[in-house]
């Protein structure tokens, strides 16, 4: 009786694995169908262009040419021996070194000030965020007028103070710092909004506990509560600001057009690819640019993630 029952039980249990595997295959098929549109978009918009870009980077192809030849890594070797590219790389690094700390620090400071407002908070949020909504090309034109050596208000104020006018957009020593000021002004509002969101998410109970533990001054509460709790937000802000800084293009294209040694990576890439039609060389520069941004983003994320409290 027990053998028969065991046989029946085993006979009844046998179809279950097949039934489960059929259900699993059906669910997997449905999951693939849902993921297919996003996967195709990812393939068509990101992966395939990078593969094609890598293919062009090892050729001497020029836009419109009927033939081209394989030259290996010559384009990459040419880039690091090209004084224009090396100057553009240095200018971009200098620009990012100014925009990243000041853009993040001033964004945090503005968020702390606005967060302390009660009645006028909405006004200051809109006022700081307006530069983000404006196109940088149009705003670069406004900055070109503001920094004009003869008719600009900035130099008018400098003359009124008794100093000589300053050529912000023609002096090679001042070009990158002047454009960095515009870049900081552009990212300040966006970073402020991100930090405001992080400040709003901090529980007020932590501040009360910090006061009871002896953190009486606002600076003590900032160092013990606010700054550690803003770790994830700061990580995101630093990475996005770094990417934006390395992507500087509009201010150079509008204000200087690369004159006076003011080229940046994206502007040098644009000149090679669209002005000089050196598609193969421009593709190599693009891969170098992507590699720099990728290494910078991953390095910042790995380094800062160890200090972040989630």
From TrEMBL:
Key word Cell membrane present: yes
Recorded topology in the membrane: Multi-pass membrane protein
Residue ranges occupied by any ABC transmembrane type-1 domain in the UniProt entry: 89-300
UniProt superkingdom: Bacteria
Classification via InterPro entries: ABC_transporter_permease, MetI-like, MetI-like_sf
PROSITE patterns registered for this protein in UniProt: ABC_TM1
Keywords assigned by UniProt, alphabetized: Cell membrane, Membrane, Transmembrane, Transmembrane helix, Transport
Keyword Ubl conjugation among record annotations: no
One Pfam family here: BPD_transp_1
Subcellular location: Cell membrane
Membrane-traversing stretches: 32-56, 93-114, 126-146, 174-202, 222-246, 280-299
Family stated for the protein in its record: Belongs to the binding-protein-dependent transport system permease family.
PANTHER family linked: ABC TRANSPORTER PERMEASE PROTEIN, INNER MEMBRANE ABC TRANSPORTER PERMEASE PROTEIN YCJO
Protein name per UniProt: Sugar ABC transporter permease
Organism, as annotated: Pannonibacter anstelovis
């Amino acid at each position: 009786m027990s053998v028969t029952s065991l046989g029946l039980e085993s006979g009844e249990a046998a179809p279950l694995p097949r039934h489960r595997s059929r259900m699993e295959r059906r669910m997997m098929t449905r999951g693939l169908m849902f993921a297919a549109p996003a996967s195709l978009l990812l393939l068509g918009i990101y992966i395939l262009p990078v593969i094609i870009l890598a293919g062009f980077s090892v050729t001497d192809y020029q836009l419109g040419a009927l033939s081209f030849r394989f030259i290996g890594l010559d384009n990459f070797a040419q880039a690091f021996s090209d004084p224009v590219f090396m100057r553009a790389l240095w200018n971009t690094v200098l620009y990012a070194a100014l925009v990243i700390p000041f853009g993040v620090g001033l964004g945090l400071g503005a968020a702390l000030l606005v967060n302390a407002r009660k009645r006028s908070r909405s006004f200051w949020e809109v006022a700081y965020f307006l530069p983000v909504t404006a196109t940088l090309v149009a705003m670069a034109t406004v900055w070109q007028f503001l920094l004009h050596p003869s008719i600009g208000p900035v130099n008018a104020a400098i003359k009124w103070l008794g100093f000589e006018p300053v050529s912000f957009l023609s002096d090679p020593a001042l070009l990158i710092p002047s454009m960095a000021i515009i870049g900081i002004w552009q990212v300040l509002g966006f970073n402020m909004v991100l930090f405001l969101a992080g400040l709003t998410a901090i529980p007020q109970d932590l501040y009360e506990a910090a006061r009871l533990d002896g953190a009486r001054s606002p600076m003590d509460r900032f160092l013990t509560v606010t700054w550690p709790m803003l770790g994830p937000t700061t990580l995101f802000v630093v990475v996005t600001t770094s990417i934006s800084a390395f992507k500087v293009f509009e201010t150079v294209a509008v204000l200087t057009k690369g004159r006076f040694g003011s080229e940046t990576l994206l502007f040098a890439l644009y000149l090679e690819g669209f002005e000089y039609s050196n598609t193969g060389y421009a593709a190599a520069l693009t891969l170098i640019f992507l590699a720099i941004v990728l290494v910078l983003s991953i390095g910042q994320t790995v380094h800062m993630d160890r200090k972040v409290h989630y």
